[in-house]
Amino acid sequence: MTTDGMSPRRLVVTLCTAEILTMVAAFTYPALIPRFIAEWSLTNAEAGWIGGVYFAGYTCGVPLLSALTDRVDPRRVYLVGASLGAAAAFGFALLADGFWTAILFRTLAGLGLAGTYMPGLKLLVDRYRGERQSRAVAFYTSSFSLGTAASFFLAGHVAGTVGWRAAFTVGAVAALAAAALVGLAIRPQAFEAAPSRGAATFDVRPVLRNRAAMGFVVAYGVHNWELFVFRTWLVPFLAFSIGLQAADAWTLEPTVVATIAALVSVAASISGNELAVVCGRERVVSIVMIAGAAFSCVVGLAAPLPYAVVVVVLLVYNALTVADSAAITAGAVAWAEPERRGATLAVHAVSGFGFASVGPPLAGWVLDLTGGGSSTVSWTLAFAAGGLISVGGPVALRLTRRARRATSGAAF
Predict the structure, then answer these.
(1) Where residue 73 sits, what CATH number does that domain have?
(2) Does the residue 195 lie in any domain?
(3) H or E stretch at 36
(4) Distance CA 363, CA 379 (A)
(5) Strand ranges in 72-217 using DSSP code E only, listed in sequence order
(6) Which residues are CB-neighbours of 372 under 8 A, at least 6 positions away?
(7) Do the domain assignments include residue 197?
(8) Does residue 201 surpass a pLDDT of 90?
(9) Is 138 helix (H, G, I), strand (E, B) or coil?
C-alpha cells in the first residue's frame, strides 16, 4: 500500500507511464542530428552543444526543483515540470531556426526534465510502502530508456513523413498527457516539512559530507557522461557506417537501431539492478563500468564491418552503458539520509547531468579535430573520450567504501 491508499503497482505504472510520455521529446534532436547539421550548417561541436545544453538546463534546474520536494508535495513540482517541457517542445517546433534558438528551447526542455525525472522518483519513494522499493526504483529509472526508445522511434517516423517540426509537436503533446495523467491519477497529499527540512534543505553540505552516498553520486556523473555521448552520437555514427557499406548491403534506419538500443537498455538496467541485489551493488557497478570503458575504445573501429555486425557491437556497448544505471541510483537513495533524500537526489542529478552536458560537445569537438567524423579513427577517439571517464566510478566507490561499512541500515 502507498501513503495515500493507492496500490503500489498502480503508483509505479502511473509514474513509469508518465516518465515515458515526458521523454518523447527528449531525444528528438539527437535522432535528427544529421538533418540539423545539414540544414543549419552546424559543426559537430555546435551540434554537440545543442545536445549537451539540454542536460545543462536540467543541471541548472534540478538543485532547486529536486530539493524543493523535501518541502512541498513532489506532485506539484512534477506538474510544473511536465508543463514546461511541453512548452519548450512547442517552442522548438514553431520557432527554432538555427543554433541559438535551438540552444534556447533545448535549455528550457532540460529545465522541464528537471521538474519531472527526479521529482517523479521522489514522489515514488515517498509514497511507496513495501520491501521492494529498490525494484520500483529500477522500473522507474528504466522507464527513462523506454521513453528514449519512443523518442527515437517517433522522431524518425514522424520527421520522415511530415517533418521535424511535427516530431517536436508530438513530443509536446505527450508531455501534456503526462501532466494530465499524474494530475488525475495521483491525488494531492498533505505535505508538512519536518523541522529539519527548513532552510537547511537547500544546504548541500550535509549531503556532500555523506561519503556513503557520494560514491554513488560521483559514479552517476561519469556514467551519464558516457551514456549520453553514446546516445547523442549514435545516429550520426550509424549514418557514417551506412556510407561505408556496399550499395546492396542490408541496412536498418539509424533511428530504428537507436530505438532497439533504448529497449535493450530497459532489460539491461533492470537486470543489472537485480544482479546487484544478489552479487553486491558496488561490485556489479564497478565491473560494468570498467567493461564499458574498455569497450568504448573499440566501438568506432566497427564502422566498416558488415552492418549487422555494427548493430550488434553497438547494442552490446549500449547494454554496458546502462546496466549500472538503476543500481547506481538505488545506491544513492539507499545511503541518503531520509530527511535529506530530496537534496541528495538533487546533488545526484547535478552530478549526472552536469557531466552529461559536457560529454556530447566534447565528443563533437574531438570529431571536428580529427577530420569531422570522416574516418574510423575519428569516431574511435570520440567514443573513447566518452567512455574512458567511466573508470572514475569504480575509483569513487572504492574510496568511499569505508563510509558505507561504517554506516548502519539502508542499503536495500
Answers:
(1) 1.20.1250.20
(2) no
(3) helix 33-40
(4) 9
(5) none
(6) 44, 378
(7) no
(8) no
(9) helix
CA dist 45 and 59 (Å) reads: 20
Alpha-carbon span 366 to 4, nearest angstrom? 51
Q: Which amino acid is at 112?
A: G
In this model, does residue 318 exceed pLDDT 60? Answer: yes
Closest by CA position to 165, among listed 304, 280, 39: 39
- The residue to which cell 556497448 is assigned: 317
Task: Quote the domain boundaries for residue 79.
Answer: 8-186+202-406
- Tell me whether residue 60 is in a domain: yes
Q: In sequence order, which residues have a C-beta less than 8 Å from that of residue 57 and are 6 or more positions away?
A: 106, 107, 108, 109, 110, 111, 113, 114
| Rounded distance between C-alpha atoms, residue 18 and residue 147, angstroms | 9
Taking a C-beta distance cutoff of 8 angstroms, is the pair 145, 259 a contact? no
What letters, b where the CB count within 10 A reaches 16 and e where it falls short, cover 223-233?
bbbbbbbbbbb
Number of domain units in the chain: 1
Asked whether 80 and 115 are in contact (CB, 8 A), the reply is yes
Question: For residue range 63-93, what is the model confidence (pLDDT) as tens digits?
Answer: 888 778 878 888 999 999 999 999 999 999 9
